[in-house]
Amino acid sequence: MPIGDSNNINSTGVLLSSSGFKRLALSPDSSTLHVGPGNHWGDVYNFLNNTGKSIVGGRLGVVGIPGFITGGGISFFSWKYGWSSANIASVTGVIASGEVVTATPDNDFSDLFWALRGGGNSFALITEFEMITIPAPVVTVGTTSYGTTNLTKERWLDAIYNFALYGGEDCHECTVTPSASTGTQYPNGTTYTAMKFFDGNDTAPPALSNWTSPYLNATSDTFAATTMTEWSQSGLAQFDSIHGLRNRFHVLSTYADRRALQIIHDTFFALVPIHLSSLQTYIATLTPMPISKQYFRASKVRGGDPMDLDPEDGPHIWYEMSVLYTVERDEEYVSAFLQAVDEEVKKMLAAEGIKQPKYLYLNDADKGQPVFEGYPAESVRKLKQIRHKYDPEMVFTNQMPGGWKVAHA
């Protein structure tokens, strides 16, 4: 959640850091893993190396854990196992009264457990997750680049649409995270890539055939059998290269519709030069993530979650729009760009009679986006009731104001 001040209080407040909560411990039968919130996913994957086990965690090792899970959490394994938050057995945390409680789907704190599976950070300070382990001794993962031509663009868009409709249903072990980037670091124009994943050892699963030659010809490709440990470590150099840059996210959602995909792509890249050309350094990226019906079905376990997405409402495509830039004074240009894309896309989709789902993925949303307004009304009512039960004086709403608060929905 790259939103200014979302994780801190003003100068009169007290900063509570969970960086010391680094516990990692397998249960005696290795069916669950106890994870402290001070870890990153890379720490978790490294701990599980050579155990034959993994967890439904972040796709990148640098990502933190508690905010990821309480926002739902998209994992490489989600197309088979659902949200990351669908794969927790218990959560331990400190509620507003100061009491340390452990919430499970079946104990006296089952309502708190449900709320923490996607309701954000209005309820407790989390001190530990107990996560369900999955078998994953070998995975096949990597990033493929396809170049910059117009033919590449159209086939890349077609591949996203077809994977949304069929790929995620035909192969629950397969995941694709496509990205298109432009900016001062891309002198040859918009570059099209895909981060591909298969849960197992197979560099040519049929469900990913549209992402390979002869349909899409690669200019570079790192898709290979490896482990989640090796994968999470391999990306560190890439993040070192952008360390210190400012970042903004904004999210849009559509049903799997080829026209909507084209409209959002074309609008995003048409507005980049209008709003961002004066920036000394920037990278603008559009990441349309195809989300299958199976993703929603797999998330229904252990009492469900506040998002309560209906499998029959899918498949969806969720669009993460991100901008990397260097200095604070550029913030107004980035804000204007993201707002312009949002408004123009909604106007054009409405003109074409293309309906959008109300749901917006919390972890990719921008400040001011109506996240909880996209949850079912009954879920929001329950979240507010649970917040009042465990925090009647709104300690976590007022003293920890960052992120999305159910009290404000």
UniProtKB/TrEMBL annotation:
One Pfam family named in its UniProt record: FAD_binding_4
Transmembrane segment boundaries: none
FAD-binding PCMH-type domain span: 1-136
Domain of life of the organism encoding this protein: Eukaryota
An annotated Gene Ontology molecular function: FAD binding
Keyword Transport included in the entry's annotation: no
InterPro entries: FAD-bd_PCMH, FAD-bd_PCMH-like_sf, FAD-bd_PCMH_sub2, FAD-linked_Oxidoreductase, Oxid_FAD_bind_N
UniProt keyword terms in alphabetical order: FAD, Flavoprotein, Oxidoreductase
Family statement drawn from the similarity comment of this UniProt entry: Belongs to the oxygen-dependent FAD-linked oxidoreductase family.
UniProt name for this protein: FAD binding domain-containing protein
Organism: Aureobasidium pullulans (Black yeast)
